[in-house]
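Good morning,

Attaching, inline, the backbone tokens for the sequence recovery test we're adding to the shared suite. The designed sequence is right after.
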């Protein structure tokens, strides 16, 4: 594989992992392992920069270095935040208080997981996030974000309506809110 091809693969892997960080499809069950995986991905643009400076010549070096400015800038900003998050999770015996599961309802094809999210000032209000999760292998989950409730606090309730149907209700400012979720056996189909 050429240096340009390897750099392309590294950037593609970095982009896929960052997209999965913001819009989860695959997750590890351990918050510590998720944070370590993201930190490892943040090293990929730096490896690509090293390859660029050592293996590419003239205009290719300049073009690829300019292309790497965005991923490297992103890792410089987000990397310390992930490290601080990892330290808080490790200090709290592996529990992630910013995204804490409050209930898990077994359904045909996995589980409906209800999470309380509170990451402080960057995210705004506390909220409730509802996800459909299916275990693919030990420690690896296929995830689909179903919905969420902004401004909801610790008051998520769930009722099982059928083998693939769950109602989630929350209380918060204003009237109580409720949604019914119909899930698919294989999460996405």
């Amino acid at each position: 594989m050429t240096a340009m091809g390897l750099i392309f693969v590294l950037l593609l892997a970095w982009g896929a992992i960052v997209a999965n960080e913001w819009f989860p499809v695959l997750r590890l069950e351990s918050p510590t392992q998720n944070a370590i995986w993201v930190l490892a991905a943040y090293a990929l643009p730096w490896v690509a920069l090293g390859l660029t400076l050592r293996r590419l010549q003239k205009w290719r070096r300049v073009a690829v270095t300019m292309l790497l400015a965005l991923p490297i800038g992103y890792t410089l900003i987000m990397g310390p935040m992930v490290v601080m998050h990892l330290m808080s999770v490790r200090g709290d015996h592996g529990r992630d208080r910013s995204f804490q599961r409050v209930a898990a309802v077994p359904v045909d094809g996995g589980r409906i997981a209800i999470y309380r999210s509170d990451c402080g000032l960057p995210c705004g209000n506390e909220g409730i996030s509802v996800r459909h999760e299916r275990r693919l292998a030990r420690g690896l989950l296929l995830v689909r974000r179903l919905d969420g409730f902004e401004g909801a606090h610790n008051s998520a309730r769930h009722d099982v309506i059928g083998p693939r149907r769950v109602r989630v209700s929350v209380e918060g400012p204003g009237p109580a809110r409720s949604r019914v979720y119909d899930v698919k056996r294989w999460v996405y189909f």
